Amino acid sequence: MTTILLVEDNHDIRDLVSRKLRGQGFAVATANNGLEAVLACAQTAPALILMDINMPELDGIEATIQIRAADPEQRIPVIALTAYALPDDEERAKAAGCDAFHPKPVDFNKLFDQITSLLGETSAS
């Protein structure tokens, strides 16, 4: 089963997105902040990461940078999942190493399309 790491500090959003992902057949690991995400990636490599940007402890931008720096050869796709949806925010997320950007509120059809596209790209490599 394909595991997605969901990094989200808001309990309600984390629960909703987790349920939707499981409904699509994914296993879901969760982290409450960027620091937990970095540690989770060091322990087990998820197939994909959904990364909130604005979080306590360590924000999603810095967490993505640290995940990328820890193992540059391992290219886990990261989707920035954020309430910040201005063009500069998307550019900042992609500059940090995010592969895609998805604004909140979540459009699950579009999110699942992004996930499918990114997982297809990584399995083809």
UniProtKB/TrEMBL annotation:
Phosphoprotein among keywords: yes
Source taxon at top rank: Bacteria
Stretches assigned to the Response regulatory domain: 3-119
Keywords, ordered alphabetically: Phosphoprotein, Two-component regulatory system
GO biological processes: phosphorelay signal transduction system
Gene3D superfamilies on file: 3.40.50.2300
Keyword Coiled coil applies: no
Modification type 4-aspartylphosphate: residues: 52
UniProt-recorded name of the protein: Signal transduction response regulator
Taxonomic source organism: Rhodopirellula islandica
